[in-house]
Amino acid sequence: MLFSLLGVAGLYFYLSHEFLAAVQIVVYVGGIVVLIIFSIFLTHASGENMPKPIVWRALVVGLTVVFFTVVVCFSLLNHSFTMPILSLQTPMSPDIKTIGKQFLSITDYGYILPFEVVSLLLLAALIACIVIAINIKVKQ
Amino acid sequence: MNGISFIEIVCVSTALFFIGMYGFLTRKNMITMLMAIELMLNSVNINFVAFNSMLHPGKLDGVFFTLFIITIAAAEAAVAIAIIIRLYRKLKSIDIDDVHLLKW
Question: What does pTM read for this prediction?
């Protein structure tokens, strides 16, 4: 999983989105993977008495998944995307300056409202984690 | 664009999405299911960035969607792991079938 996340970051680098690649590495590889590894350590003792995955279900799901992957890739290969004419629209460079300016602009294509909403969501997640993790003393 | 073409990036994202879906549908371990969800969100991010930078390079909307998805995925993973550890302390199990506390 770590290598697949790093591979996604490499794809962003390839598409010349350096800021996105940095965010991907910091948030996923630095944050989420560490959290998941910690939780695996904390719940390690439960791993042995888990039941084995059911074979026929894995088989059915695997066949379905392979089938749909082949179908989607086949239709993608047959579909011809209209590549843009690069002389008509100037490509915007996805550097940090442009992203930050558009994040906080209040004009037509600004993203100030979802930015604030997402900050509220992060605060809510923080409080929710504290509330879940705290030990509530039940009064007898 | 020489090197990797657009189709190949989208095919990689398709494969990643269906690997995540396979993991989500077959496993009973809650942490594994969470990792599968993260894989699916990642493939959606690749799609957004690929479509934005190759088909509509004049705008940056896909980049913003990707940033918001990464933020929400981080928050979701934190809350989900908090819930999982809490359930583990209560039930001594991370099997998804053992969690029927809310079932009436």
Answer: 0.80
